Amino acid sequence: MAEVAYVSASRVFAGNPPVRAVDQLELDVADGEFLVLVGPSGSGKSTALRMLAGLEDVDEGAIKIGGKDVTNVPPKGRDIAMVFQSYALYPHMTVAENMGFALKLRGTPKQEIKDKVAEAAKMLDLTKYLDRKPKALSGGQRQRVAMGRAIVREPSVFLMDEPLSNLDAKLRVETRANIAALQQRLGTTTIYVTHDQVEAMTMGDRVAVLKDGLLQQCASPRELYDRPANAFVAGFIGSPAMNLKTVPLSAEGAQLDGLTVPLTRAALDKASSEGLKEVTFGVRPETLRLASGDEPGMELTVELVEELGADAYVYGSVRIGGQPERFIVRVDGRTPPAFGQNVKVAVRDTSEVHLFHPESGARLEV
Amino acid sequence: MSIETLQAPVVNIPVRHKRSRARSVGLHAALVLASLIAVFPVFWVLVTSFKPDGRAVAPTIRLFDESSLANYGDVLSGQQGDFLAWVANSVEIALLTTVIAVFLSATTGYAVSRFRFPGSRKLLLSFLVVQMFPFAVLIVPLFNVLLTLGLQGTSIGLVLVYCTTSVPFCTYMLKGYFDTIPADIDESGRVDGLSPFGVFWRLVLPLARPGLAVTAFYAFLTAWGEVAFASAFLSASDESKTLAVGLQVFVQQNRVEWGHLAAASILVAIPAVAVFYLVQRFLVAGLAAGAVKG
């Protein structure tokens, strides 16, 4: 068990111009923490993980595991175990041999290997399959073997590179919970890469959001959801995505069509001190509601209704400054408006509105 | 509703479109004919190998005509040439070629498949270009090279010559095969504690067994049946010949000893068949897997 630190670590791929796949990453992961690296494809999250594994060079900066600088240490000297997206099981070895391979290389006595493999197999419900080859296993079982291979080694850090992306939806949810529970039980520092923000939110103690190789924000899931540091994080975290629109500002607040959303004094001051006439206005679908009667609200033409049972999401267009803008509103699943209907939409709680700089995207509130 | 109605009805799904009887007969007749045409020459060599020379090309064709094992006895006893020495030479040269070619092309193929290094593309291209030279053109320059190295007339020299043709081709085949093994497995091995060579030796080579079998088979055959290089680069003395070269003693200026030639040919073919038998279960998978991406 150990803490992990990225110290201004960068990975630059040769090219013209060179691509900074991971750019000056500063990240400290506490001992026993479950940290999720999340971002769209090409954000550098996998590269960051591979740098920690030693499979990718660190061109600038350093990487530390347990306080020790491992920047130039080969993978086998880092005391890490990795679960690959493709599982990367050894096809010519049985499940037991796969799981015990690393121990065998270390020269662990045979009986001890056998005991540890048996113990891990029991934990993962693989005991019946120990003599099988990987090709005779289902996707879920292979995934568990990959986990087992990592567990058996008792490494100081687990690295997981999208380990669930090859599973079907139901199994993924199940395995997600199992991995989180297992990590809690073992208490091993874990770095987990995913592009799925639901996985990130449900599994991580903290979540680091990356985009174009740059760390956008690293915080607890709650914090990330409630106080996104910039418009990118705001739009990336949460499903369906936050409504993010550029709207004009007035002395009272943000001007939406037929609706003025009052803003805090601090936010308005910040905006005016930067000379902003417009602002990127963010509101989550659940912060919007249908307005009743003659309440002020913005006119929304319903274009699509997604009924999920308990809730329904209404997709519709609102004219802002003459341009139609799409908004998503969460409504009660039992009485959704119909397609083509015009409804009025109001903000449920103005304190849950997010404001961002229209150009830099940085959060405006303090 | 009873339980039965819930079960899926049993339906006879035809596995494939059924052929009409006439078509089926026609198809099989054509296949049988093709097989006969392919097998007949070998069969006739076998039949001839039991006949005395005089009967081998007799005007009346018979399957058995004073047939005996005498030809085999003559060939093996070394009446016309030291047949057993030829076998030893051929085995030595073919096996050495196989071992060296497979080892070199496996390591080269792995490097080209996995690592990006300056000139890796050019290396592959040069391997391809080398394949395009006709063998006959190569004999004189190779002769000079062997002379300079002091290897002319030695079996090691001939092994090296065979490697110059086997290694490029085998490298191509194995590169294609290694490309089909996911690089994740290499990385997984490195995280598990293997050195780069350990990854190659303990993970990649075992997984590439079909590819290696095909390559070994190819390298063995090129060396085993080759005549032109062997007659040019080995010393002319009888006991240093290979089988393919040695067979020529049965073809003399004025007459051909058909019976002896056929018997010797059969003896030469046996090891090749044996090697084929050993690797055949890999061959189909190996050729397909290696060739597509090669």
Automatic annotation (TrEMBL), chain A:
InterPro entries in the cross-refs: AAA+_ATPase, ABC_transporter-like_ATP-bd, ABC_transporter-like_CS, ABC_transpr_MalK-like, ABC_transpr_MalK/UgpC-like, Mo/tungstate-bd_C_term_dom, NA-bd_OB-fold, OB_MalK-like
Any one GO cellular component localisation term in the record: ATP-binding cassette (ABC) transporter complex, substrate-binding subunit-containing
UniProt KW keywords: ATP-binding, Nucleotide-binding, Sugar transport, Transport
Signal peptide bounds: none
GO terms, molecular function: ABC-type transporter activity; ATP binding; ATP hydrolysis activity
Domain ABC transporter: 7-237
SMART domains: AAA (SM00382)
Top-rank taxon: Bacteria
Pfam family, one: ABC_tran
One Gene Ontology term from the biological process aspect of the record: carbohydrate transport
Protein name: Multiple sugar transport system ATP-binding protein
Organism: Kutzneria buriramensis
Lineage: Bacteria, Bacillati, Actinomycetota, Actinomycetes, Pseudonocardiales
From TrEMBL, chain B:
Main location: membrane
Residues that span the membrane, as ranges: 25-47, 93-112, 124-143, 155-174, 258-279
All residue ranges annotated as the ABC transmembrane type-1 domain in the record: 87-279
SUPFAM superfamilies reported for this sequence: MetI-like
InterPro entries: BP-dep_ABC_trans_perm, MetI-like, MetI-like_sf
Molecular function as annotated in GO: ABC-type maltose transporter activity
Annotated localization: Cell membrane
Membrane topology note: Multi-pass membrane protein
GO cellular component: plasma membrane
GO BP terms: maltodextrin transmembrane transport
Keywords: Cell membrane, Membrane, Sugar transport, Transmembrane, Transmembrane helix, Transport
Family recorded in the similarity comment: Belongs to the binding-protein-dependent transport system permease family. MalFG subfamily.
Designated name of the protein: Arabinogalactan oligomer/maltooligosaccharide transport system permease protein
Originating species: Kutzneria buriramensis
